[in-house]
Design brief:
GO terms for molecular function: polyamine binding. By secondary structure, the chain is α/β, with parallel strands linked by helices. Strands 3, 4, 5, 8, 9, 10, 11, 12 and 15 form a nine-stranded mixed sheet that branches. The chain has a two-stranded antiparallel sheet with strand order 1-2. The protein has a two-stranded antiparallel sheet with strand order 6-7.
Length: about 1000
Amino acid sequence: MKRFFKSSYFAIVIAFIYIPILVMIGFSFNSGETTASWVNFSFDWYSKFFNNSPFIKSIITSLFVAVVSTVISVVIGTMAAIGLSRTKKVTQKSWFGIANLPLINADVVTAVSLMIVFLMAGLKFGIVTLILAHISFNVPYVLITVMPRLRKIDKSLIEASYDLGAKNTQVLFKVILPILKPAIITATAIAFAMSFDDFIISYFTGGDQINVSSFIYTAKKIKPYVFAFGTILVLVIVLAIIGWNAVTMTKQHRLEVKQKIKNGSYKNSKIQKLRKSLNELIINTETQTEITRTWRISLWARYYFLKFKIWLASSQQYDKRISRLEWKQYKLRSEINKEKRYYSRLTKAEKKAQNLEKQLLLTKADVKKAAKLTIQIEKLEIKIAFLRDEIEWIEHRDEVAEKKAAKITKEIRAYQKDLKAEINPSKKTLAWYAKKIKELEDWKIEVEEGKNHYRLRMVVEQLKELKQKNASYILELNDKLQIFHAVVYSRKSITAKFDKQIRHANSQEKENFLLEKRAAYLEMKTTKYEQRILNKEVYIQKVQAHIEQTKEKFFPSNPDTISHSKGFLARSWKIILVAFIGTSAFAGLTVAYVMNNIYDLVVANWGEYIDPALIGEFEKANNVKINYQEYDSNETLYNKLYTFNYDVMVPSDYMVQKMSEEGRLMKLDYSKLNVRGTVNNGELNPTPESTKEESKRREIESSLLDVMYQSKVKETEHNQATWVNNLEKNEAIAGSILEYALPYFWGDLVIVVNPTPDNVNFLKDNGVQLNDKGQIDNNTLSWDILWKAAAAKKRVALNSDPKNIFAAAAQVQFQKVNLDTNAEIDQVKDKVTELVQSKSVSLNGDDLINKVALGFFDFAMMYNGDAAFANAVYNGDAELDDEETLKEQKDSQKDNEFVSYIYGRPNAETNGRKEGTNVFSDNVVISTDTRNVELSYKFLNFLFEKSTHLTDYAGITSPFVESMEEMVSEEGTYRNYENLYKPITVQKDAGYDPADKKLAFQYHGRVDDYLVDKYNSIVAGKR
């Protein structure tokens, strides 16, 4: 196993890097929406990628920012490196360390610092701040890449340039920059990649500019059009690498051709091959013979086996053994040379010691200098003592070697004398004496030559023997091959078949006919060979002419006639071409960027809350441009408002309250809203003049699920008086929201359980009962089940929203959603800490949907719409569009609800009161600083018109009754998940009474800020 990993380590690393890329490329062609299963091969996601205008805009923004920041960063970084190289080493080291601080510093710290600086400077967040931020972190990368190359420049080159009369600019552009070119290219590639891929710094400093990383991060669900983009990006990189390697290989080939022409080996092998073929044709013509191949398979098998053995012997590598011997040879020679240098080193050290002693006598008054000289003399004395000991040992070794060699000679003579004294010695005795005498003779040679010299000679001999061994073996095989070649490729007469027929002719007439036929065939063959000979000669002449032309090109025969001064175009055509292509590309990119940033409306929404195709549809219908941006939390949206103003936003209910109290939202004019109307070419159908604003507001309220705001009226009649009373009864919460916002999506928080036998038994053991459909009885379910699951080491996946997690703890302790005071938050903090910091608990953003859809969990706390979508993906329902398949599935399910996962909304009684769940809503609002009020209302009406499409795309419950009912109808996506798709407050016999519970989050000002701070401190302690 150890040997396997040792030999396959590089392959394992490469596989670890490239297998995910290959998987991404593969699933970019999957017609399904997830990586959970393969559906069909399709290019649909590539089509959707090119039609996704917000994503395309983010890519254009990334490219524009990356190009501009890279160019500026490379110029600044290169000039800074050249400037630092001219300073003292101490100064250079200090500034270099300061410049590298951004590389060590955390990106989030850099991002926040830059944001604060831009705020203090009063800059408007956008393209300028984004480019400045990217330049700030790119310059250090350029500096650390260029500086090492700059240090390797030979200073004598620069001095020589000045001596020859070059000015500073000429030295910079003619000497320094050409040497730095490889480092500058590398720095450019690194800076571009870092800028294009950056997320954190762009997220904090981009304002209205969304680059590709920010777009992908804020997407609620990673759809395969991102895989399509990744595949295209990989293809571009591969093509760039192939192009670069092609240019490099072309240059290398040019150098090789020049070298071959110089040593006269250019196209020699081709000429030899052609001449060999020509000679064979001439022989065929002169001897009237041709080469034929044998039909004996056994001969061919032996022939190709020999060729295989020759190939194997030729490819056999002795590099390791040869390199070992060469290294041994190098060490021995170094050791021998070192011993030879001892004498000269001793002489130099003694002379230097004498000079230092003289200097010491002359500088006794200068105490510091005398101390330095004394230290130097002491070091030299140690060195001299060492050298003398080594020389003495070497000389003594030679004396000992002489005596030892004499002693070995005596032993050899003694053995030789004993051998002569033997009477009729046996072969074994003779072999023993011969071996003994040979060993002593080798030993004597070793002693006389010196151990190192002898070993060196033996290594050299082994090296020669090893190099010749394989060559002789190949020659032997080639000799055998030639013999077989003569057998398998035998030469015979061109007219052999006619000669045979003539010999067996049974009549003179037939013989004459065959002779005529033989003569005609011979003439035809001869003519054919002569033509082939002529063609070969012409081709050889062409090759030779090409060789001469190439030779003349690189090495002119008359150099005096060649002008060495090139014209401007000849000297600069490459630079002009690159500059033209680069300028044209940048101009096109700039135009694309400007065109995509001339917009009429800025919309901020949650990731994947709208089909990108709808953005394009609205733009086309109204002939406008939309700057569509995404965010991942209400707090992120709120923080963005410090750096940029949006026109239309989709915050959650409690954030609407907060923003309205701060005066950030415009009160809605209900007369401009036409929820019941239709959109025709971007224009709303006119409404009757008698329609008043209040009646219009009531119409909208009655068409929306206002129960999410706790303002549902049980009376069948819906009049002004009951509506006002209802608002007063519920602390005017619904009124404050409907005054500024209209619902976009809504839902509630549920607990989802992976129905493994172990999890089902765990529920039953903790008192949770299942109904006849296999689902949880809400009256037996408590939020405390999450704490129990975490204690049992179950995989618990939580929605990472701070208010949701604290709400779960608040339900267990206080049986309410909202925590109204800091004291209440402190009371549940320990319980939240216990849950969040458990090792088996994971905090998830929008990736929670994918985790549940793939079944990588035991218990999950998530929104009902996300749970329904994850269920649909898990069961494949989200991708079914075949009517026959749908019919079969409905027939098999009949009246039973088909849900893979167990789910429930806690409604258990705790401390004499029942628990509940958070009922949330995300709402469309218009900013007070909107740039186009009329277009904002058009966009709101467009969203209402497309409400069914929106809920089908995002998987979140629509606030429109009609759209919601359509999604759970027989043909709807969530037909199998009605009770999960619909929030608990609109389900029959659910046991929830919104009038008695505070089901929706409310804004509590600093109390909410205190809750978020506590949550962040808890998460920071999670390991």
